[in-house]
Amino acid sequence: MIHGAKISKTILWSLLALLAALALYPVFFLIMGALMGNDELAGYLGAVIAGREGYVDFPLLPGYPTLKHFVEIFLDSPEFFVMFWNSIKITFGVLAGQLVVGTMAAWGFAKYDFPWKKGCFLLYMILMLLPFQVLMLSDYLILDKLKLTDSLWGIILPGAFSTFPVFIMHRFFSEIPDSLIESAKLDGAREWQLFWYIALPIGSSGVIASMVLGFLEYWSLIEQPMTFLKDKSLLPLSVFLPDITNVGRSGMAFAASVVTFIPAILVFLGGQDYLEQGIMAGAVKE
Asked: 182: number of CA atoms within 13 Å, CB side?
């Protein structure tokens, strides 16, 4: 019986390892492609990037590894650093706005009673579920009226008022005992002190989880910058991708993807525990 359980466990772990390898293969593909020279890439991927006849072939390891493409990005591509700085400003500008607006909105929905509270929160949830394509026209008309269609503020302000972080943090704030709040009020705590000394410390896991998810979303924005930004000098790093069908720049495209991917994976790994707590909190029903 024990022997059969061990065999079942081995088969399960083997299956999970295979699925993990398949899921990680695109990342491995990017890294190996970034370490290959343009000629080697053209030889293996010529049917795709050069329009040649034949089939795509890709080895596990590069035959002649090189860091040339990373050197091109960091030393010979000034537009890369401009777009990198634009991504920093957009991402951290949005996160700063969500930290101020989202936390207060979530705290208000969690612990205060006001007219039409449930209806307003339902409206928040509906807006959260609507994809960007549905709101694109209305967003564009509003931003154009405010003269923000060709400005980073046209990306930052809508993101700062996003409803998704409110949904994440609301659950954590709701779990704070009302008795604790009442005790603090009896001790003379003011409303801002309740928020600053009770809500934020106790609900910090939800706040951090929403910030991590916000970083992953806004670091990789594609549609909003392409829709609202006309000046190419304002575009973020997420749209910096050299023409991969150009044989001379295909390696640089792989390297740019790797460099763009690194901050996101570091933030994800750093906030993984908080994300798990956020998922668990959202799954629990009272």
From this structure: 3
